[in-house]
Design goal:
mainly alpha, 12 helices, two-stranded antiparallel ribbon, 2 strands
Amino acid sequence: MTQQPWSGSGGPPAPVEWLPALDIPAPEHQNRLTVFFRALLLIPHFIVLFVLSIVAFFATVAGWFAALVLGRLPDPIAEFLTHYLGYRVRVMASLMLLTGSYPPFALTPPDFPVRIEVRPGPLNRLAVFFRLILMIPAAIVQSLVSSGWWCLSFIWWLITLILGRMPGPLFEATAATLRYMTRFDAYTMMLTSAYPKKLFGDRAEAVGVPVHSATRPLLISSGGQALLVLFLVLGIIGAVTPSFTTSSDSWDWDAAASAAHR
């Protein structure tokens, strides 16, 4: 299994509707001390991500103009955005307690348990032109589910701290949240033409599919699906009730997550 395979113009053609994949190992024991100080330990990564996000923004804007002409992202832009997205996912996976491994300061680490697979390929020019409009429904979904997760992030942190590992259903729902966020970001940056989907897992398509990791295919139990529904409900409540989200902002991870994700 490779980390973010890069398929440039010299390689085999990539499937047009390839959905970005997320690989995370099954939940294992984590050092409680690093869990306790997780957000603080990741501060250097937040600083790096802030700088990289500025570069990624201008790369995405340049890629948008180029994709209108070429019908795909130029290879250098696609490669940088793919590696940037992979770096951000590794940091978010650590922040969301999906892994106990500390992410390396590298865009292309040789070995890390959290990996994504993105296959940039041909893009529909019309879909590229209206990308900002088309992404609105997916933006709403990812905003609701991620906001719902962060509203109770203190509870997820406390559970993981006490148990020394993330429980299975919580792991499934958290991984599904991160995967949807990743697919939304990949669509936003035009790294894929496939619209973000399958928030509730891959059970319908999992028969006969090779197993790459605990999240590929992503099979979500009834408990995990119930948690995802809870995330969405909390996100909706937070959107319509400002005081609800304000009260949850006392947990410092919200600010850390925003810095890492944006």
